[in-house]
Protein 1
Amino acid sequence: MGLAEIAAGVEVTAEQRDRGVATVDRTDESLAERLAGHEKALPTSAETAATVLERYAAGDSVGVAAHRAGTAPVTAAKTLHLLGESVHPLGPTGREVVADWLAGDLPRTEALELARATETEFALAVYVQTHDPLADACAAVEDALAVRHRPDEDPLEETRSDAVDLL
């Protein structure tokens, strides 16, 4: 069998259909309804967690999202962490200091000084390092954290070079 026989019937088209970016929404339930099954593991109610997540996904800071949801910023940060968002208040060195404190290698006052953190930041860092995100809750809200694009906007525009870039 030669190439001509293998390629028999293969056609090449000059056009492709633009289908846009695929979005996934596996449920018709609201975000609060999806979080209701995980409410016992969250530091706040499902409704408050949904509001925090929606505001945060819309671009609000953790503090603004917390204010709009009627909860404390630390509670909002804990909620976002449990739902899979990275909200660690410390850098790599601060994380190592917290890990050393958790292991009992440092007293708290020394750990606070070395981490260069406030009491609140240190407490949140400890929470983040001692609580893993809730896998089922993360899956339930993954589409809420997806980046949304307008239909007339090219979502890959930033990845392409302009003709000027080639000069």
Note: Residues 88-132 form one domain.
Protein 2
Amino acid sequence: MSLILSSLYIHPVKGCRGTSPVRALAQARGFVDDRRWMIVDGGGRFVSQRSHPALALVGVATGPEALVLDAPGRPLLSIPLAGNGGPQRAAAARDVTIWGDTVAAVDAGDFAAAWLGDVLGADVRLVHMPDATHRAVDPRYGAPGDEVSFADGYPYLVATTASLADLNARLVRPVPMDRFRPNLVIDGGAPFAEDGWRRLRIGEVTFRLVKPCVRCKVTTVDQATGLLDGPEPLRTLAGFHTWQGGAAFGMNAIAEGEGVVRAGDAVEVLSG
């Protein structure tokens, strides 16, 4: 059965709502603009939907001149951008922590912090990863030089509609693909065939699929309401599809080189 890239997603601010462009430029650390921004607490540690599910309601738009955030009942937040997509008027650089990594970031300033603090009811800051910051992927699954933005661990997440359909057939209430926040969604093939894929060609880019993605309670957040939605789909997934003891859905991936991918591109399995 032929495979097609049905859609692609970019999440400019980690944890916030994503966008679905028809084309995107793939680079080493992820799609351009993907998870180059992150929200941190007062100690500089990353904040996500795990602790603040309302982040799902924060919409993000990117452009050459500004990053714009919106949230229900709030005025738009517009952050003027300078070089490499970072804030134009920023506070001093600061170290931030995501999982076990501590990296240098650029703070977006007090106004952005106050806006997000009002939305989340917490003491938070918005930071940007500049081009000069390099965060390596887990060396157990990557090669020297492989890097990632503020995504959890890898630059890309590949998911398939066949696997989602298989999961939904086991659920009382089906869930949409946005529960899993992928970058590349593929139509065609058998459910969970991606577990055995090792290299894919999509558009101008070859991707290495390096490990299954073990899922967390973010999958239980309704992305339309920003509310926890009970134990599903995590509970059902944990009952039939796991990796190293954790519920797994999708494959973490790394791009080999740079290029454009487009919705509708043919997907070729180069090795599996």
Note: The first strand starts at residue 3 and ends at 8.
Protein 3
Amino acid sequence: MKNIFKLMLLFLFVLPFQACSDDDEFTPPTLEVTPNNIAGIWELHEWSGSDSDVPMVYVEFIRKDRKFKIYQKFDSMYTRVITGTYTLEEDDYKGIIIKGKYDNGTGKWNNDYIVEALYEGSMILVVDNDEPETHTYVRVEQLPAEIVDNILSADEADK
């Protein structure tokens, strides 16, 4: 009887270690999509699954007053800063949708974006239209110095 008890006790200690596998992939926990959780600076890392030929885009979501700043270099020699406000709307079928409106009087963003996933260090947005594109952003602590210098150069050129 003692041998059976010792054997059962041994199994209780050994079996939990057998359940763990080195092959299991770690999936980071997702965050709730709130102004607080998306606040910060995000760099466009992938555009529709490709990390090559990704345009230089940084988006800064500011929690207070739900404002945004977009730093982009699509159509200019210098980095342009575009500002506005954003909203987070919940759709029963699609989830949380980010919508934006520009301050410069040109109206709304061309597209709304479904937040497919929000992690501590990355965010996946999908364009909400008939031909969805996937945009992956990574969180950065601050804008790179060359972006800040480029903005300052553009300000000097405008004077």
Note: The beta strands are 40-47, 57-62, 67-72, 80-91, 95-102, 113-118, 122-127, 134-140.
